Amino acid sequence: MRSMNLWLVNYLCHNKTMPQTVRITDVAREAGVSLATASRALNNVPTVNVELAEKVKETAKRLNYSPNRTAKNLRSRKSSTWAAIVPDAKNPFFTSIVEAVEDVAWKSGFQVMFCNSREDVDREQSYMREIAASRLAGAIVAVVSTSRSTVQPLIDAKIPTVLIDRSLDEFNGLTIQTDNAKVGVLAAEHIEGIKAKKVLCVCGPEDASSTEERAQSFISFMKGKCEVEFFRTDLQAREIDNRIENVLRGEERPDAVFTTNGPLTAWIYRSIKRVHLRIPEEIVLVGVDDEPWMEMVDTPVTIVAQPINEMGSLAAKILLKNGNYEGPSSGTVTLEPCLKRRVSSSLPAMR
Known about the structure:
With 351 residues, the chain is of the alpha/beta class. It has 14 helices and 12 strands. 44% of the residues lie in helices and 17% in strands. The strands form 2 sheets. A 6-stranded parallel beta sheet has the order 2-1-3-4-5-11, sandwiched between helices. Strands 7-6-8-9-10-12 form a 6-stranded mixed beta sheet, with helices on both faces.
């Protein structure tokens, strides 16, 4: 193995057939023009002779020349690329938002660079520093942590920034999020209506503002109406599997569960099936976010849906400021959730 590695290093260092990056100086030399003329021709400056400009462009195409957009951005302070930073690329909620952003961006001549921070503040900050250094045209960010994250690198670089889903106390721009308190209330009203006696409320990390607000409003509404057991997790599936199944197998198990986002709903649904409880005859399940699987399973899941497409497209329009957005330039834009009743809560799980 060591000899193979040494061979590979030697090949990479000395093989003359390896493709080299074509620079604008190569295009100018091949076309027989000055560097300045080549640059003006490739940037469609009208003062360049038409035939000469065509020759430069044909040469660039033949050599497979691609301009260094980062360097160009730094020189001109203009870019046609946005960045979207999300905390969990495996969560369909975030990827669907980015898809909605991309739809608006593409129609307006922008591209979107996707960054997955993986719920890691250090990784998140690394992305922000790179975005700032590259002078991108804008950033749409769902932060990892309400208390530990910061968008200061973007603000210092004057990168237009919009927050989605999760809030930051010290951010002076616009934040777009669902009315998370109403999410909790809609779920609580529905579960109260089926006369559940004991409810398990499953929430993610405390410093994720969106899920925390949903959980707290749910608990507040249920106070004095039924018993609520609060279950917090750091979103690690193994931890949920081990702890939640013990709760579901217990003699004092709940007859209803409320989960505050899509991944939690999936894990809880799986755990319920593993302990062989019937939904909704023995236990009711209400989640948040309308993921495709929730209608495809044997027992479709009741959820409180967020206006994901509206959230993403609005964030993009704010960055564009193309006349389609006439709201405030700072503060919070709050969007309305809605309850979608399905089989998982169609009957009271009374014992």
